[in-house]
Amino acid sequence: MLHPRRRRTFDRLRALDDVSFEVAEGEAFGIVGRNGSGKSTLLKCLAGIYRADAGEIWLRGRVAPFIELGVGFNPDLTARDNVLINGIMLGLTPAAARARYDAVIEFAELEDFVDLKLKNYSSGMQVRLAFAVMVQVEADLLLIDEVLAVGDAAFQQKCHETLTRMRSEGRTVLLITHDMDAIERFCDRAMLLDRGRLAAIGAPGDVADRYTRLNFADGMPPGVESGRAGDGSAAFVDAWFEDEAGERVGILEQGRPASFHAVVEVRKPLGDPVFTLRLDDGRGVGVFETSSAHLGQRTGSFTTGERLQVAVRFEALLAPGRYLATPSLSHSESAGTPIDVRRNYTSMVIQGAAMGSGLVGLPHDLELRRAGSEAPLAGAGE
Amino acid sequence: MSAGAAYRMTGPAAVSGDPRRFFDLAYTLAVTDFKLRFFGSVLGYFWTLIRPLMLFGVLYFVFSQIVPLGADVRHFPVILLSGVVLYTYFAEATSAAVRSVVDREQLVRKIHFPRMVIPLSVTLTASFNLVLNLVVVFFFMAMAGVEVRWTWLELPALIVLLFLFATGLSMLLSALFVRFRDVRPIWDVVSQALFYASPVIYPIEQVAQRNETLAQVAMCNPLAAIIQQFRYALIDPGAQSAGEAIGGWPMLLVPGAILVGVFVLGFTVFDRMAPRIADDL
């Protein structure tokens, strides 16, 4: 310090405040919250990396924190050395690390590359190796911080299978994730943190629901527009979603009537413009598209300065989650030259009773029947 | 799954948990560092050896040809080499330790482990080097015709003392460096000064001839006492022992107390700061 006597000024930020919870042995417990809500700090306190300034943490059994995959991996060492070192870092004795070495390599499917320096590995291979080490470390309590969000689809599948297996072996798992799907499928209970405070604790479905609401609580979802194209002869000036009562909202209830609205300002005379609406699930998968052309509608002629109102009424059958809307207007002649396309102009969130995973919540019923019997064993449905 | 009794997680500490794991970790980190230095370059170990040898070569040339300080000292080349090797160990261990905790930020922020492992692993790595360098010293001693004596048995004790001194400073410096980055330039100078303050390039007798008190004060430095005793016990029984140079055996309590004091201070400071290291980084 340049001025030893200068008073140190700082702002006190309580990363976690008044958060009390218990997790039973063998339980899978999810922790959700927005960025900066204190999830990772909590996990690091549990793992003994940070010291809590107040309060108490009681644990039972061996804890294995997975804050990040491959901590301490050294690019200049071979996979063999790294596996042994990482194993010891994570709490194995050197003998135990050596004994598990073959299993690790086999699990990572890297038998042909054990003597290669880690810097020559692809990042996918490194992740596989790191996860394999983690899996081999036998702990009673696993603290996992979004490490599963890496790797390709096949690897993610493997991660999920492994976690499910660990759970069935009676390990206790604390999982931080932004993936509500994982929370609902994998966890017995979950907890929502909001700015360092405990906002909800209980059934994963309810907590996921609260999280979704919290995320989009500030009126309209934040601007997400990711691109605009067109010749400018007309422009979208507003777009929004409405619920069945005609209220402008950001959150729609699954299975209820809803509508999309847009206002277009005409800047040059137009004849029969084609309106298209596309809904996208945020990962680039189009889940719904409709167009005035598909419906065989002629839209008529407009003169400069006129305003065009668009409404698309639909039933919100989509699975819970966030959807991005791309409205577009194009000329009907000259091969559909775009007039104004606003990619991901606005968005909405569908929420509702989870129906498992899937893209849509189709109206359906489900029946089980013993062959030859008339009486259904179980029935559920609309 | 039964998992034993519940315990309270109090957060990170300097020394905690299973002592077995503590040493496994320190040893593993030290071996890894050593390996990396070995295999990183084409000539590997050759370089860790050549550095003290080059320094020795330069010093020998200067102090035998230009300033004949060691002209009438028996086995001067071997004494010079041993001094250089012991000092190099000390300088290497402490200067690497200064940055050690900060350099291992990744581990500190992601894994729960007794933090003291870090400075300890640094001094261990340097100790592996020391052992290899001592082999070279013994080779030169044999060439110079130094005879084997019972006092050679003091060697392990001297190395342990040096190790404790270096480790104490490593703990102190690495903990302070997390908060005060000024530690590094300061230590560079201090460690350089300790080289000249220790009887490496000059025999302590020559200092004593001019000013006996000055020689005795110089010997209060644990590093100086260890280097001098190494000379007496292993190379030249005709030289002054550390006890004689400081003016009587009881006076050795002073460098002894300094050594223990530095170790205790280093341990205490590190122990105090350990719980906060992850936050302060």
Written description of the protein model:
Chain A is an alpha+beta fold and 382 residues long. Chain A has 7 helices and 22 strands. In chain A, helix 2 (79-89) packs across helix 3 (94-108), helix 2 (79-89) packs across helix 4 (123-136) and helix 3 (94-108) packs across helix 4 (123-136). The longest helix of chain A is centred in the middle third of the chain and has 16 residues, at 153-168. Chain A is elongated, with a radius of gyration of 27 Å. The relative contact order of chain A is 0.12. The mean pLDDT of chain A is 80. Chain B has 281 residues and is an all-alpha fold. Chain B has one domain. In chain B, 73% of the residues lie in helices and 1% in strands. In chain B, helix 1 (19-40) crosses helix 5, helix 3 (76-103) packs across helix 10 and helix 8 (204-210) runs antiparallel to helix 9. The longest helix of chain B has 28 residues, at 76-103. The radius of gyration of chain B is 20 Å and the shape is globular. Chain B starts with 5 loop residues before the first strand and ends with a helix. Classes of the chains: A alpha+beta (382), B mainly alpha (281). Chain A binds chain B through residues 1, 25-26, 44-52, 56-63, 65, 67-68, 71-72, 74, 76-77, 81, 84-85, 88-91, 93-94, 140-141, 169-171, and chain B through 1, 3-12, 20-21, 24-25, 28, 32, 35-36, 39-40, 106-113, 180, 182, 275-276, 278-279.
Radius of gyration of chain B: 20 Å
The ordered H/E elements of chain B are: EHHHHHHHHHHHHH
> Could you say which structural class the secondary elements and strand pairing of chain B correspond to?
mainly alpha
Query: Averaging pLDDT over every residue of chain B, what do you get?
Result: 87
How would a textbook summarize the main sheet of chain B?
A: none
Helical region count of chain A? 7
Strand content of chain B: under 5%
**Amino-to-carboxy terminus distance of chain B:** 37 Å
Contiguous low-pLDDT stretches of chain A (5 residues minimum) are none
Q: In terms of quaternary structure, what is this?
A: heterodimer
- Strand fraction band of chain A? 25-35%
Low-confidence sequence ranges of chain B = none
Number of distinct beta strands of chain B? 1
In percent, how helical is the residue content of chain A? 10-25%
